[in-house]
Design goal:
With about 270 residues, the protein is α/β, with parallel strands linked by helices. It is built from 11 helices and 8 strands.
Length: about 270
């Protein structure tokens, strides 16, 4: 692909995307980054051989696509600086919580925006990104956005931007839930007398293998679970304990709480003029 892409912000997620794009055939000359930190700029140049500069300028905004990869609290200032330099570029915002109508307001009405919600497994090429496009984004620009984010995992288009709060609660925050379960299972293994290395190996390979099995199967998770839950066996006893403790309801209520917090953050972050 011959397009050029600029990143405003060079943190972990931007680095994951840059690495993914280079792995998909993009050349370092097609990518550039604006990053305030001198240390981060040096790292980007060393690891990826991309142009990393300390500030926005007219040369940067000749890119076909600009990825807004700053922290959400920094996006207002970045957008204000970018607004007078825009003319045709597609903007992709990966800043959590910032709604497109607020970003458009900060950009003086510029509307060619795709909002994206990637998650941290993008760092190892197994991310899940939900995408939402404004009405000003055409089909080729949607394809461009999808090709950029698919470099670090799978993508899913949303019709309604409000669904992004649920996405944040499921796939955005979801890796932490999995890590929490890993933490608990690893701790339980240590309580059974396994040393830390063995507990880690048993837990991680079990979670990784189960996820791979579920991903490769056409059957629903409930059926896969039933297949390994023998009547009167050890697995059944553990599942009965989970059911008695209301684990599914706990998960549902936790996700609802995360969704509500996502809405609150959108209100808090978007109030600036």
């Amino acid at each position: 692909m011959s397009v050029s892409i600029g990143f405003v912000g060079g943190g972990n997620m931007a680095s994951a995307m840059i690495g993914g794009l280079l792995g998909k055939g993009f050349g370092p000359g097609q990518l550039q980054v604006v990053e305030l930190s001198e240390e981060a700029r040096a790292r980007l140049q060393r690891e990826f051989a991309v142009d990393a500069r300390p500030a926005l300028d007219s040369a940067f905004v000749t890119c076909d696509c600009i990825v807004l990869a700053t922290k959400p609290q920094q996006l207002h200032e970045a957008a204000r600086g970018l607004a007078p330099l825009l003319h045709h570029q597609l903007l992709i915002s990966i800043a959590a919580g910032i709604r497109t109508h607020d970003l458009m307001r900060w950009l003086d009405g510029y509307g060619r925006i795709v909002r994206a919600m990637p998650n941290t497994p993008a760092l190892v090429g197994f991310g899940m990104t939900a995408l939402y496009a404004t009405a000003s984004v055409n089909a080729s620009e949607r394809n461009l956005a999808e090709s950029i984010l698919s470099a670090v995992g799978e993508t899913l288009w949303l019709v309604d931007e409000s669904a992004m709060d649920g996405v944040t609660a499921i796939s955005g925050s979801g890796p932490a839930y999995v890590f929490y379960f890993i933490e608990a299972l690893e701790g339980a293994a240590r309580q059974q007398g396994f040393d830390p290395a063995a507990a880690r190996q048993l837990t991680l390979q079990t979670v990784l293998g189960a996820a791979r099995l579920a991903a490769d199967s056409l059957e629903e998770a409930a059926m896969l679970r039933a297949r390994v839950t023998s009547k009167g066996g050890t697995t059944e006893r553990a599942i009965q304990y989970f059911e008695a403790a209301g684990l599914k309801d706990i998960v549902a209520r936790a996700v609802l709480a995360a969704t509500e917090r996502s809405r609150e953050l959108g209100d808090e972050l978007g109030h600036r003029d």
